[in-house]
Design brief:
The chain is mostly helical. It folds into two domains: 72 residues, no CATH class; 246 residues, Hypothetical protein af1432 (Orthogonal Bundle), CATH 1.10.3210. The protein contains 16 helices and seven strands. It has a three-stranded antiparallel β-sheet, with no helix packed on it. Strands 2-7 form a two-stranded antiparallel sheet. Strands 3-6 form a two-stranded antiparallel ribbon. β4 and β5 form a beta hairpin. The radius of gyration is 22 Å and the shape is elongated.
Length: 331
Amino acid sequence: MTALSSTNEYTAISKDALVEDTKIDFDVFLKNDLSGRSRYILFCRGNQEFSADRKGELLNRNAHRLYISTKDTGKYLKYQEKNLRQIVEDYSKSSLQKSGALYQVAKNLAQDVMDDPKSGENIERASAWVDNTITHILQNENTFSSLFEVASHDYRTTTHSINVSVIGLLFGKYLSLKPNELECLGTGLLLHDIGKSTLSQDILNKQGDLTSEEFHEIKKHPKAGLDILEHNDRIDGLSLKVVIQHHENNDGTGYPYGIGGSDIHLFGHISRLVDAYDAMTSDRPYAAAMRPFATLAEIKKENKICFNEELLKEFICFLGLKNQRSKSMPT
C-alpha cells in the first residue's frame, strides 16, 4: 500500500525511535522520491508488533528515516512515553538519541500538566519522566552535553519547566545528591510553575514591562502551585519546597513569604538559581536571550541579593565543566 501526499501530511521520525518487540499504535511509512514527488509506502500497520524481523528489514533497506501520519503525532508521543524506560536503557542508542526522546516526551507531558494541573495521572507521568531522566543522567557520562544540545530556548512555561528540571538534575548530580533527593528535586522543578496555569495568558505572554498590578498577579503563582499540589499524596514535601520557594531571595526580598538565608531549603536555593539562569538564557517575550557568560556575570552582580553565595560558586564550576565536556566529549 502506498500513499501519495505532500510532506506536511507526514512527519519524519528516526529509524531508532521504535522499540523492538513493542506494539505500535500507528501506521509507519517509508518515503520514496520519484520524479520530484514523494510516495509514502506503508511499512508497518498500526496495532502490529515491531519485531526483530521488522527491525532487520529496516537495516537491509538502509532506511535512515521513518514517517508517520501527522495526525498520529499524539499516538507516537504516547508510544514514546510508554516505552521511555526501554529507550533510556537501550545501549545501542546514543546519548543524544535518548536525550531527544526524553525532551520530546517532556514537551507533550508538560503541556498536559498545564492544561490539567490537578490530574493525578499527569503528576504520575511527571514523576515517571523524572525517574527516567535520572536513570539516563546516572548511566551515561555524555548526558551533560546531549541534554543541553536538545534543549529549547524559547521561553514558554512548558519548555522553561523542562529546561529547569534538566539543568537542576544535572546540577544535583554534580552536588552528589542521592537518587531519592534527585527525584524530589527534579519533580519539583518540572512542576515549579504549575501555578501559572491559574494566570491569564495575556499577562504571561505580554511584550514589555508588566504593570504593578500584573506583577502582583504573577507573584501569586508559587502559592497557587502549592495549593494545587499539596494535597496530592504523589508529591513529596521536598518537591513542594521547590514550588513555593523558587522566587525567594537569599536576602529575604523575594516572594511569596519574604524568607531568606537558612530559612530557604537547599532545593529552594537551587531552584532560584537554575530558574533565573534558564530564563535569562532564553528568548522571553520582553527580552532576548543572553549568552551564558553574560548571564553568569549578571547573576554574580545579584549574588548577595538573590542567591546563596556558596551554591553560586558551585554552579559556575558546574557550567564550566559543561563547557569543557562539550568541547572534548562526543554525543
